[in-house]
Amino acid sequence: MEKITSLLKRRGFIYPGSLIYGGLQNTFDYGPLGVEMKKNIKDEWWNRFVRRRSDIVGLDSAILMNTKVWEASGHLAEFSDPLVEDKITHERFRLDHLLEQAGTKIGGLSFEQMIEKMKGKNIKSPNGNELTDPRKFNLMLKTSLGATLETSSDIYLRPETAQGMFVDFKQILESTRKKIPFGVAQIGKAFRNEITPGNFIFRTREFEQMEIEYFILPPKEDKEWMEVFNTWQKEMEKWIEDLGILGSDIHILDVPEGERAHYSKKTIDFEYEFPFGVKELYGLAYRGDFDLQNHIRESGQDLSFVDEDGKKFVPHVIEPTFGVDRTMLAVLVSAYDKEQVEGEVRTVLRLPNWLSPIKVAVLPLSKKEELINLCEDVLRELSDLGIISEIDITQSIGKRYRRFDEIGTPYCVTVDFDTLEDKKVTVRDRDTMKQERVALTGLGKYLKEKVF
Amino acid sequence: MEKITSLLKRRGFIYPGSLIYGGLQNTFDYGPLGVEMKKNIKDEWWNRFVRRRSDIVGLDSAILMNTKVWEASGHLAEFSDPLVEDKITHERFRLDHLLEQAGTKIGGLSFEQMIEKMKGKNIKSPNGNELTDPRKFNLMLKTSLGATLETSSDIYLRPETAQGMFVDFKQILESTRKKIPFGVAQIGKAFRNEITPGNFIFRTREFEQMEIEYFILPPKEDKEWMEVFNTWQKEMEKWIEDLGILGSDIHILDVPEGERAHYSKKTIDFEYEFPFGVKELYGLAYRGDFDLQNHIRESGQDLSFVDEDGKKFVPHVIEPTFGVDRTMLAVLVSAYDKEQVEGEVRTVLRLPNWLSPIKVAVLPLSKKEELINLCEDVLRELSDLGIISEIDITQSIGKRYRRFDEIGTPYCVTVDFDTLEDKKVTVRDRDTMKQERVALTGLGKYLKEKVF
Questions:
Q1: How far is Cα B117 from Cα B120, in angstroms, rounded to an integer?
Q2: Which of A13, A64, A205 is the best residue to mutate to test the B interface, defined by the most B CB atoms within 10 Å of its own CB?
Q3: Could A175 and B69 be called an inter-chain contact, meaning their C-beta atoms sit closer than 8 Å?
Q4: Which strands make up the sheet holding A424-429, listed edge to edge?
Q5: What total of structural domains would you count in chain B?
Q6: N or C: which terminus of chain B has fewer CB atoms within 10 Å of its end residue's CB?
Q7: Of A286, A314, A332, which marks where a domain is finished?
Q8: Model confidence over B309-322: pLDDT tens digits?
Q9: Do A19 and B167 touch (CB under 8 A)?
């Protein structure tokens, strides 16, 4: 993991945030290569699940929402971790973590049950000291809006993008006139005051989600929602496969009753074998009509759907959730490879071509002007075709190959002195390292077919 | 303006945020059509200024930054509005606004000078009551991170995306090995606790920016930075033109000395004739080396650039800033049109094709199955070509044309009973309303050339 993070920082994928000021509590910035790769992920997700489907529409709701949203959703009362404090050092710890370390299964335990377990087990702080009674620590980040006494109020940064889709459900229905089943999709930032952020970009307080709420008619039989659930599970598996993640590195966890939310008849986690353990990558949940019913009750608004016969329903919902940052991490970990080549170690990111931030490297064999001019012509042609490319003129050709292997560039195009004569270039494949002479005429088309 | 906002809400461009709970202080959500149009704007900006240029790289830095960033940038001390309070009603007002209304030019006045003016003018509250002395009200939204006593601290949501690009300057330089001149570009959310948000999405507390910091060598003569400045001014004018905004609706304001920041030798505002007045749309500023020098001083880090001869420089910077939400608003206002057609009023959004959220409407003349099947074939072909399209089968063809005129769809394709015979469809142009028979074979290619 350290080797990967060091590569990602050095090459401009992911930097520690606010680094010149000593950083800030596990925040990260996406550098020039990271931001391109992240955009590739988000664009393909949006094209696949929104633009190429007529049954899903997009939304971009505000991060700042009325506090009543979080009252209705239960986040204000329940979205919390149980914290205990070391009576001597005043350090705070998550009680659920301490209980787990003491061998207690905590899945599904209520706050009160955890207190009982804590007393029964005589749990101490990791420093060996006594602990205070636990208190609930809400995970939402609070801020305050407004300057006048009348309007100033506590506001929370959304801890998930999902609620925006429920709160706007009726407006979306009215303006799009969609029929059930249909879905709403959103990509956006969310914030959680995690007690223990960590493992690089796996758990951060600021993160980005790609979520879909897929609304269906209230099912008369389980098999009705099960069919939609299974279809979404397959969609997610296909997505994971297209990211270049091996199916054997993914474990589907069927979250047992008692550990999943009480309103969910089925929840599965897509777990990935991260270097620091098997952890949740994505989630898929059947949430019934819990969310819409909450908002109907608390807002007093009618959020039901009326079908062509005039019958009213509160739709049920299936929710596929994808973390953007976790996608980045899983893809990068999957793609990272080292191998022996001619007695040297070659580091290579075996990214699927569509994910690579730079698709083609254009390399003049020497710094001679006529070669560089030719390279610039090639670059311009590729750029016009929408193929992100880069010219690199420094150091030996071997070192330059390694430099682009390391960032996952699928093809290197070398312009040499023969090129001036035969109007051909050498195209090298990142994975096979095989080289091919390709005519300059048609080079753009040749590469375009390969990289998209 | 009311007609426009009502259209935008009704058709799913822009909804009031948290509406079912009575909204939240001028927050807005982008609905299914708005999110597509916004994505078109951001994607084109990114393609134009990052992907198609070899001298600009992208960044996506965190919204949460170390508080020392805002100490260094001056935001913590200076990014504030002067507020006064009505002694009777306790309402608060911006003193600069009250002074302006009283006919005082406040550009460039310091906080202390405003107090003097206030006393001299005997400024009263709009309710006629006495006012308190002004106090500085910081515009940054504050939150708090961390659960343990040791790490919990006040953190601000960034009020601009720019600082991320300065703070990461050295990391970007090292990982990309770019030479000066080069730029860093970023698109992202920022937050300001505006005292008086308003005018729809013109001034909101949560907003999105597209910014570039373009680094140049410290100029020996003014004309060196002036040339780069002029080039950027032209780039911005070209961008505005491509948005379909008339040059005559744009006013370039050369911000006079005393009103612009003290470190800026030149700042221009691109002002647009919004329905509620002539207001700032974009900005372009030459900021010297003010930002990097601040961070060098406060962080103690060396943020200079070393050229090939080993000479060290602190680069200067030209900063073009584009508001995403203001772009949306200016484009929508510019595109909105009403005209008399056959005795009826036609509302039409004359959006440039590349900005339209739905490019093509596919309309069966009747609900007959064979026509709908044909429409679905057409939709599939267009979708495969990346052309976002929609089938609409309800109401008369005339009403459906109007519906798509209103959301700026450039082309309507009508499938009628003749289509079954002659394999041709009617393609209607939004602006001219002219209709043309086009063969089904090649229809996708025909439309693709028109809409992109």
A1: 5
A2: A64
A3: no
A4: A389-391, A360-364, A411-415, A424-429, A435-439
A5: 2
A6: C
A7: A332
A8: 999 999 999 999 99
A9: yes
Residues A19 and B171 sit within 8 Å (Cβ to Cβ): yes
Residue A345 forms part of a structural domain: no
**Hey, is A105 helix, strand or coil?**
coil
Distances in Å between the Cα of A152 and the Cα atoms of A146, B91, B155 are 4, 11, 19
- Among residues B297, B332, B367, the one where a domain terminates is B332
> Residue A148's pLDDT is what?
57
pLDDT category at B412 given cuts 50, 70, 90 is very high
Judge: B193–A145 Cβ closer than 8 Å, yes or no.
yes
Contacts of A157 in chain B (CB under 8 A): 143, 157
Tokens of A173: 């229905």
The per-residue pLDDT of chain A, averaged, comes to 93
- Annotate B33-64 with b (16+ C-beta within 10 A) or e (fewer): bbbbbbbbbbeebbebbbbeebebbbbbbbbb
Pair B176, B313 in one domain: yes
Q: Are residues B144 and B179 in the same domain?
A: yes
Residue B393 lies in a domain: yes
Q: Which chain B residue's Cα is nearest to A84?
A: B148
- Show residues of chain A in contact with B61, CB under 8 Å: 17, 29-30
The reply to whether B9 falls in a domain is: no
The reply to whether B384 and B292 lie within a common domain is no
Q: How far is A228 from chain B (nearest CA, A)?
A: 22
Other Cβ atoms closer than 10 A to B127? 12
Domain that holds residue A394: 358-451
Using alpha carbons, select from A430, A425, A365 the residue that is nearest to residue A392: A365
Q: What is the CATH number of the domain that holds A370?
A: 3.40.50.800
Q: What is the mean pLDDT of residues B134-151?
A: 78
Q: Is residue A33 in a domain?
A: no
H helices of B14-74, where?
A: 32-46, 67-73
Closest-CA residue of chain A to B298: A21
Average pLDDT over residues A102-120: 79
Both A324 and A285 in one domain: the answer is yes
Residue of A nearest to B135 (CA): A147
Chain A residues closer than 8 Å to B46 by CB: 39
Q: What amino acid is encoded at B272 in this protein?
A: Y
Tell me if A9 and B60 make a contact (CB, 8 A cut-off).
no
Contact A147 B83 (CB under 8 A): yes
- Considering the domain architecture, whether residues B187 and B318 belong to the same structural domain is answered as yes
Cβ pair B36:A21 closer than 8 A = no
Does residue A390 share a domain with residue A299?
no
A181: preceding bond cis by omega (within 30 degrees): yes
